[in-house]
Amino acid sequence: MKEKWPLFTGVVFLTLGVILLKTIDFDPWSLIILLTGVAFKVAYILSKIIKKEYIPGYEIAFLLIGLSLFLGGIILEKKEIIENAIVLKMVGISLKVVFIFAFIKKSRKK
After folding, report:
1. What global pTM score does this model have?
2. Which of 19, 70, 76, 80 is buried most, with the most CB atoms less than 10 Å from its CB?
């Protein structure tokens, strides 16, 4: 459990960033908090790669595409380019969930 603190901290920052973004429109700070959460999660994944507990594969594409769609949906909605970007956000979240399951499956095989 000690080595998973970056993962849980990242989840907390991501959740807090989304809540701030949706409730009080904490514009620049909510994005900074979201990106901090992403950084913690990336640090966790990189530590697993360095320790050879995880070997990246095709599932990284799910993560990158999912993050791009999710953040793109947030930005496009804020800039009022798209009225309802929920589809982009939901597809992005779904791809991130697929990555999480693949990551857990590959990490536990070792």
Report:
1. 0.74
2. 70
